[in-house]
Design goal:
2 domains; mainly alpha; 172 residues
């Protein structure tokens, strides 16, 4: 409408055909604008859907990152545990080897061990008891000699003291 007024002001008068032509062009432009608006609206809807999908993927990515961090820590902890278990296994294997070596030695000793005959055992037992009896007898004899020695020392000390007393008495 503005275009028409400007043209009228300039001295140009539009005829009816031109006016109809402008109306048709205007309607076509309005139709195109509506189509573009529909396209824009469709693009906005698609953008909204895409943003929702994008946000969903971002959330999934965030959850996956958190889970990945957690799993990395879990893997690290399990690796540490595995290393400790391997060390303990190595120590246990060494201890087992030592125990097996000792066991072999003991089995060899056991296989080499000879049990004495009953009569031989009884004879050795009797000899042992006889030796123990002799030891007790000697111990008693030693005690008697020690007591006798103590008594003699005491007597000697008394005689010495008496002698000193006599000498002291004679000097005064």
């Amino acid at each position: 409408m503005e275009v028409i007024l400007k043209k009228e002001e300039m001295g140009e008068v539009l005829n009816e055909v031109d006016f109809q032509q402008l109306k048709i062009e205007n309607a076509q432009f309005l139709e195109r604008i509506d189509e573009r608006n529909q396209d824009l609206l469709q693009l906005k809807l698609t953008t909204g859907d895409t943003l929702q999908v994008l946000n969903c993927y971002k959330k999934r990515l965030q959850n996956t990152m958190v889970e990945s961090t957690h799993l990395a820590r879990e893997i690290s902890v399990r690796n540490d545990i595995l290393q400790r278990i391997e060390l303990e296994t190595e120590q246990v294997e060494q201890e087992r080897a030592k125990a097996e070596s000792i066991n072999k030695k003991l089995r060899k000793q056991l296989s080499d061990y000879r049990v004495p005959d009953v009569l031989e055992y009884v004879q050795e037992k009797m000899e042992q008891e006889e030796l123990e009896k002799n030891v007790r007898t000697w111990e008693r004899k030693v005690e008697i000699v020690e007591l006798s020695l103590k008594t003699q020392r005491r007597n000697w000390e008394q005689m010495k003291a008496a002698s000193l007393m006599q000498e002291y008495g004679q000097l005064h």
